[in-house]
Amino acid sequence: MSIPPIKGVLSPVVTPFDSNLRPDIDRFVRHCRWLEANGVGLAVFGTNSEANSLSVEERMMLLGALIDSGIDSARMMPGTGCCSLTDSVQLSRHAVKLGCGGVLMLPPFYYKQVSDEGLYRYFSEVVERVGDTRLRIYLYHIPPVSQIPISTALIERLLKKYPQTVAGIKDSSGDWNNTKAVLEAFASAGFGVFAGSETFLLANMRAGGAGCISATANVNPGPIHRLYATWERDDSDAQQANLNAVRAAFHNFPMIPGLKQTIAHWSKDRTWSKVRPPLVELTDAQKAKLLGDLDALGFDMPGLVR
Known about the structure:
By secondary structure, the protein is an alpha/beta fold. The chain has helices at 25-37, 56-68, 85-97, 116-130, 143-146, 152-161, 176-186, 201-206, 221-229, 236-250, 255-267, 284-296; strands at 8-11, 41-42, 103-105, 137-141, 166-171, 192-195, 211-213. α3 packs across α4 (116-130), α4 (116-130) packs parallel to α6 and α9 runs antiparallel to α10 (236-250). The model has no long low-confidence stretch (mean pLDDT 97).
């Protein structure tokens, strides 16, 4: 079955919670619609979605709500990688059934120093148990958080066994040399390499990459998508510099609370600032500093529902 590869800019969509810390479906769908309107695909249940604070049932419910709302499933890449093999299979099967263009899959991250053999068996079991030719897996390499790297040797082995299923990777290592090595090894064969931050978007596109999956696409989707769409123009370096300045404004704060506070401020909806424990909201001083830094850059979120 021919399934178009996912390309472009995707957002690991932040998950809104109500006063009882339950996922807020209406706010979630509205935010996803705004992202879609700005040209951005949806990597729901990524790191910045607080995915590992959500149950399997909650993820499945939210994904179903997006589909029911009419949002294009072809540009969805929900996170389905869990420590539990059976949870990963259940979530991946559900995503395929709903027509998602791919799934973003963390390695099982609780046990450390696991071998490539163990990781190969894990990913292989997911593929075999889902048992659907429509499954497209994008590996999630984020060793600063998971402490479980995905090596080029492992990618090569998976591609040899599952060339149609293993479709790409998100590299959130923060190490351009690693991204470059993956691009050089696999991009020419159609393996989609996504940078884990828009900081590397221009370099990734120039080297044959597929785009980026970035936390700050939650709040700055239009300009990030614009660089992806126009990276060959003469002003691309200036666009990249502007994106870097916005990204830098978030670096001194916990990313997830910072993103949610930004949405809360520009939507004038305080509920957006809620996070699930063990995360905590920004302090008043942190809020003032972040919003002041963004104001100084002329930052805005045009079209956001208020």
